[in-house]
Amino acid sequence: MWLTDHELLVHLPVPGRREAVEKLVEGWMLEEARAVFRHRMQKLIRTTPALQLRRAPILSLRRMTSRWGSCSPKGRILMNTHAVKLPLNLVDYILMHELCHLRVPNHSRAFWDHLTDCMPDWERRKKALDRQAV
Fold it and tell me: Strand, coil or helix: what is 87?
């Protein structure tokens, strides 16, 4: 499998098996998402003192059909694997949104104020994300 500037090229020993291609692409996307999301999350934590986090929370990945990410009451962040297809500024918004839930676990005014402290341009990013299909 090769990633070019505009395509993901898949080579199969027996061409034409759609299920095999889908399985390979899903596996590749999962590993790519894991690497990208971990890297971006660590960068956000390192460069955003307002988060007040010393280390990254547990990151889990799953294909979701109705959301880009979530934060569990135990502090685990779950990301939609298909978010890896988004521009990095939108991935950063999703991650920052979930990281802010570690401090404020709801969508109260305190949450939005904390998100603004951590990512002042979040509204612009959210509007761009809202135009994307999950």
Answer: coil
Question: Domain total for the chain?
Answer: 1
Q: Which residues are CB-neighbours of 22 under 8 A, at least 6 positions away?
A: none
Q: What is the pLDDT of residues 96-108, one digit of tens each?
A: 999 999 999 999 9
Q: Please report, for the domain that includes residue 117, its CATH number.
A: 3.30.2010.10
Range of the domain at 39: 2-130
pLDDT for the residue 29:
86
Long-range contacts of 39-44, Cβ-Cβ distance < 8 Å, separation of 24 or more: 40/88, 40/91, 40/92, 40/95, 41/77, 41/95, 41/99, 44/92, 44/95, 44/96, 44/99
pTM of the model: 0.87
Whether 95 contacts 77, CB under 8 Å: yes
- Residue 72, judged by CB atoms within 10 A of its CB (0-12, 13-18, 19+), counts as middle
Digit-coded pLDDT (tens) for 23-54: 888 888 899 999 999 999 999 999 999 999 98
